[in-house]
Specification:
Strand order of the largest sheet: 9-8-7-10-11-12
CATH superfamily of the largest domain: Medium-chain alcohol dehydrogenases, catalytic domain
CATH class of the largest domain: Alpha Beta
Number of domains: 2
Order of helices and strands: EEEEEEHEHEHEHEHEEHEHE
Radius of gyration: 18 Å
Helix content: 25-40%
Low-confidence stretches: 1-20, 23-32
Number of strands: 14
CATH topology of the largest domain: Quinone Oxidoreductase, Chain A, domain 1
CATH architecture of the largest domain: Alpha-Beta Complex
Largest sheet: 6 strands, parallel
Shape: globular
Oligomer: single chain
Structural class: alpha/beta
Distance between the termini: 17 Å
């Protein structure tokens, strides 16, 4: 059982919503690797589980990781889901390598913000799409080239990419295949539970499996402590303004992550 701090899910359907949580473990768990009661922890609720807006929640021990002192509570909540997703996409699914070029759709969002940093840490060249207001932000994360999606057609501005990450969905999904070179691969996290069918036969269409586990959270912490990544920009809302926060979330046009502060 864990008391917790803050989170914002993509949608809310259950009586007690929320998918990112952290605070302090109140009960040590069985197993070889235990976190003593009172240690600060963070986690992402298991697939299909919500309830992180509650002050206490029961969660599987093996998907919880220690929160380092160098990472604040709110910042850990903001990093958990986008960091976990970006890590699995960039390192596990796309297996991005140094010297490759990747197009990241929606670079100013939570996943995009972390994905840009991970790709640059690996040594890749990063092209990203963002509104004009966010160009300085994504360049500060390491983007080598920024495409204004309101003024430019990204299929004409980018080509010959080794990889692409679509965090946007909609018509962007199928159009993303156009920027790939033969043999390229594209990962999709905003177009359903299955990888979309590619519009051409010489590229790969991939749907990352964003599983919850301690290993990836600990990898995320190691990258943060090494200075390879930083937390996306955070906008905080008190729990009393949860409805307003959801309204902002549903626009899909905000920078970084939204975090509800429960107490």
């Amino acid at each position: 059982m864990f008391t917790r701090r803050a989170s914002m899910p993509p949608t809310g359907r259950s009586a007690c919503v929320g998918s990112r949580l952290l605070r302090r473990g109140q009960r040590a768990w069985r197993g070889r690797r235990r976190v003593p009661p009172g240690d600060a922890v963070f986690a992402v609720c298991d697939v299909g589980q919500e309830g992180a807006y509650a002050e206490k929640i029961a969660i599987k021990a093996d998907i919880v990781a220690r929160k380092p002192a160098s990472l604040g509570h709110v910042e850990a909540a903001a990093l958990a889901v986008p960091g976990l997703t970006a890590l699995i996409v960039i390192e596990d699914t796309l297996q991005l390598r140094a010297g490759e070029t990747i197009l990241i759709q929606g670079g100013a969002g939570g996943v995009g913000s972390v994905a840009i940093q991970l790709a640059k840490h690996i040594g890749a060249r990063v092209i990203t799409t963002a509104s004009a207001a966010n160009h300085t932000y994504v360049r500060g994360l390491g983007a080598d080239e920024v495409i204004d999606y309101n003024a430019q057609d990204f299929t004409k501005a980018a080509s010959g990419c080794d990889a692409a990450l679509d965090t946007v969905g909609g018509d962007v999904t199928q159009r993303s295949f156009a920027v790939l070179k033969p043999g390229g691969r594209a990962a999709f996290i905003a177009s359903g539970s299955q990888a979309p069918k590619a519009s051409r036969g010489d590229v790969q269409s991939l749907r990352p499996n964003v599983a919850r586990d301690r290993h990836h959270l600990e990898r995320l912490v190691a990258l943060f402590e090494a200075g390879a990544i930083r937390v996306p920009v955070v906008t905080r809302f008190p729990i009393s303004e949860a409805a307003a926060a959801h309204g902002v979330s549903q626009t899909c046009h905000f920078r970084g992550k939204l975090v509800l502060v429960v107490r």
